[in-house]
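As promised in the previous annual report, we have extended the structural survey to additional targets. Below is the entry for TIGR00282 family metallophosphoesterase.
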Amino acid sequence: MKVLFIGDIVGNVGRQMIEDYLYRIRKDYQIDFVIANVENATHGKGLNRKHYDFFTFEGVDCMTMGNHTFDKKELLDFIDEADRLVVPFNQPSILPGVHTRVFNVKGTKIRVTNALGCVFMDNRYSNPFDHIDDYLNLEQDIHIIDIHAEATSEKIGLAYYCKDKVQAVLGTHTHVQTADERIIDKKVAFISDVGMTGPYLSSLGCDLDSVITRMRGLSSKFLISENSGQFAGVVIEFNDKHQPISIERVLINDDHLYRAS
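The corresponding structure token record, generated without further manual editing, is:
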């Protein structure tokens, strides 16, 4: 069983990278199941119905979210129908959405759960460690957690805490792919951040001029960059016992010819 997890998809460029490369990657790596973090997919913040349907059409089997989940209020109109969408379990309790889902993939039950970090994040979100136990003894063959968080220490800590109960803990949110992929104690696949699928020449997907202007202390709105793209993700392979046996980074710069590894 091979699972592709795609890092934060940002704006139009990120969606174009999905259209250009997902089918090819799925075929070249013989992927069975695709998960993507899509909380920045619609103009950099949130997700609308059009783009949810786009990802479904392009072959994304499960979509996870994060701190921008409800930035597009349109999501409230269709969230109950979005049967591929998973939202953070430690968001404010008044907000709607399913926090964990099971997908049947060739007879294997794959559970996907979404969590938000609290270190250096909005204080509206409760500590994921206060709630994670509620999700560790559920029924599935493979359990994958998307921990959408700022601090690598929090992500690593969660992976070690869950290592005997889940098969993958994958970090999102910082939009920078880290080089610390590993199989912890031969039990759980881990990476601090899967990376960003979006504009390559940017600051986390935003136009560089607008970011620099704001960092210099001048009033400036962050604009989503529209230059060449990149595709970031990881491929995890599981054996017949549903144990992770490898995790491999995928990083494609649109300026270079794509080749399968």
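The chain has a mean pLDDT of 94. The radius of gyration is 17 Å. These points will be discussed at the next consortium meeting with the crystallography subgroup.
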